[in-house]
Amino acid sequence: MFSAATSIGKETDLAFWVITGISAVLFILIIFFMLYFVYRYHHRRNPSASDIEGNSTLELSFMGISIVLVLAMFFWGWDGYKTMKGAAPAGSLEVKVTGQMWLWTFEYPDGRRLNELVLMKGAPVKLRLFSNDVIHSFYVPAFRIKQDIIPGSEKTVWFTPDAAGSFDLFCAEYCGTNHSSMITRAIVVEEADYNAWLAGKKELGAASKAKPSSKAALGKELYATMSCSACHSIDGSSGIGPTFKGLFGKKERVTTNGKERVVTVDEAYIMKSEHEPTADVVVGFQPVMPPSPLTDEEIGAVIEFIKTLK
Ligand SMILES: [Cu+2]
Hints:
By secondary structure, the protein is of the alpha+beta class. Helix content is 34%, strand content 23%. The relative contact order is 0.11.
């Protein structure tokens, strides 16, 4: 908590401590003089009040000291800000980050997509941030990095993680019912581990669990990690979306292009609902589901999982 896990974070910390330090000294001085004057000018010690005339030396030095203090706070803030908002070093790892209700997706240059951010210690990284729906905010307190993400525009941040470990990564902008579940981890590892991970020789983070034994097991894992659970229960209770329990094979009343009709929930229907969630909306629910970031193969696994929920 007290030491930042990025180089930029160290500059943020420095600015924070400079400002806190100046404030602390001023606080002590002000309280000291306040108590002293209460004592010194108590009516018993100072029965008749007298006017105080101006004192140019005192006034000018007050102004001078204040200007120096305020400029010092500005300087350390600006110095860190300049680095933070400057261009990322050439050759930085670029990761595309997508926020959507209520899930983070990280896409690497080689095409892999994860729900946790895996980074190499000491290697600068540039994040390109996008939102699929509403305003989210990418926040990793240990990195001292927080950036709002606005739908329809690209935001970028860069930093160099310089401590290995696992750090909380969450959304810091209230974005709907399950905003609080929009939480994951940034995992920083040593270069050797990172390269082994890139080469597929080592599993990191959530993927470090044993490979799912079946398609249904993979589907179950995706259900949990891809935040399907935020809206779709598996115990029959109603949520933001229909429950998955007993869903497969069920006849469902849906609204298609403003007209109600009855469909049977089968592979094709679920596949279509993942790609175009607002095409056939089950009667009684709002068309709020974003298109799924899953591949067809992964959706297939989720369908296998739904089939097991009798
Ligand atoms: Cu959010």
